[in-house]
Amino acid sequence: MKTRRHTSSGGVIYKAKEDGIQVVLISHYNQRGKLIWCLPKGSVEKGESLQETAIREVREETGVFGRVLEKIGQIQYWFYSKEEETKIFKTVHFYLLEYLRGDEKDHDSEVDEARWVALQEAMGMLTHSSERTIMEKATRYLTAVYGQKIPVPSVKVENILPNDTDNSSTI
């Protein structure tokens, strides 16, 4: 079986409002027709830095613009591409971005929906445990910056997909 490596970059984009912090999540349907809620991310293009990719992918997939504040971490996992008949080892680098402008309705066609949600709600919506780990790190950073206690709900076991345990996290 053919194998290859792939690198992507994405982000957690947030805005602070009077009633708390909000982040944008995106949704799409996977090959099996299941609704997936995730963080915006995508392939690094030739000549692009990881940060530039994160900014571009967040803009394309969410319709909003942001500036990079910090690298949050990275995740790594294997998946199989039927199209390429290849097993791919993927590394995704994630950054925390501060919202500058834009409208989530202006997302690209790869995404079914982009939605601002309360930080606490985002943890329960994310489909993959590896991305919940990234969101936990973003929450800790934002709590430190804003000096307020932001509750992080515990994740229920039934929210984890059966194959999600195969996704190893390096953070």
Automatic annotation (TrEMBL):
UniProt xrefs under SUPFAM superfamilies: Nudix
Hydrolase recorded as keyword: yes
CDD domains, per the entry: NUDIX_Ap6A_hydrolase (cd03673)
InterPro entries in alphabetical order: Nudix_hydrolase (IPR020476), NUDIX_hydrolase-like_dom_sf (IPR015797), NUDIX_hydrolase_CS (IPR020084), NUDIX_hydrolase_dom (IPR000086), Nudix_hydrolase_domain (IPR051325)
Keywords per UniProt: Hydrolase
Single GO MF annotation: bis(5'-nucleosyl)-tetraphosphatase (asymmetrical) activity
Pfam family, one: NUDIX
UniProt KW Transferase keyword: no
Chain ranges passing through the membrane: none
Domain Nudix hydrolase, first and last residues per copy: 4-140
Gene Ontology BP terms: AMP biosynthetic process; ATP biosynthetic process
Record-linked PANTHER family: BIS(5'-NUCLEOSYL)-TETRAPHOSPHATASE [ASYMMETRICAL], DIADENOSINE 5,5-P1,P4-TETRAPHOSPHATE PYROPHOSPHOHYDROLASE MUTT
Protein family (similarity comment): Belongs to the Nudix hydrolase family.
Protein name from the UniProt record: NUDIX hydrolase
Species: Candidatus Manganitrophus noduliformans
Taxonomic placement: Bacteria, Pseudomonadati, Nitrospirota, Nitrospiria, Candidatus Troglogloeales
